[in-house]
Each structure stands twice: as structure tokens, then as C-alpha cells.
Model the fold of this input.
Amino acid sequence: MTDSNNNPDVWPNGMPQVGQTAQRSRNIEARDIELFTEISGDRNPLHYDEQAAKATPFGGIVVQGGVTSAILNAVVAEDLPGPGTVFLQVNWSFKAPVRPGDRITGHVEVTKVRADKPITELKTRVTTEDGTVVLDGNAVCYSMPIKSN
Done:
């Protein structure tokens, strides 16, 4: 059996190390809600109808959870573990709403790296600019070699 952790095709930036972190931020806009609706078909009034949304415990428009969690896709695929990485399993708890105009930051921290396969376990979190945790949990990722043409 080949030790995939020493393969630079799998880990072009080197094998992730326990405790290693990465993060990425972006501003959330109303257009993100529209784009996610095009992809998902989610037309929940919480995302579009200001009056209906104000009458809920959220007190206003909230973006879909898929928009919030998507920043973690970017961190994992672009930064840590990096290109060629996909989620195998996620366990996320949504803690607070994200609204259009919020700036969110996705954080990942490596908690385990398997020696026999390119599988990484991560602590995951998304926060708003004021430090509010809006998503918290963990993920298991698999990284595969990506050959450029």
C-alpha cells in the first residue's frame, strides 16, 4: 500500500498538520439569496418577504443555510486541505441568522489527519464580523490528486 500522505499530487502544499488553520471571508448580499434559490428552488418567505420574516423570531430576512455553509466549501477546496478536497461528512449546527449585508468568515482547524488515506477531520465554524458564531460543527474531508491539462 502506498502512503498517500507523502504524495505531492494529493498534498501539493504538504500534508495538513493537526492544529493548522485557515479562514476566508466574504460579504453576503441579497443576490446570494437569489442565486441560491436558482440552484435549490428554496423560496421560503424567510428569505424574501420582509413583512413575513419580521413576524418570525428571526425578526427579518435571513439567508439560506446553504449560503452560510458555502464559505466552508471555499476554505476546504481552496485553502485547507486544498484543491482536490471534498466533504465526506459534515455535522453542522446553525446558531444564529445571517442577513444580507453581513460579512461572514469561515474557519477550519485540522483535528486529525489519517496516515493511511488522504482523509482530514476538521473543526468548522462560521462567524459574522461582530464575532457571532452562526455555524459550528465538524467535517471529514477526502483529498484526491488533481491533474491540470
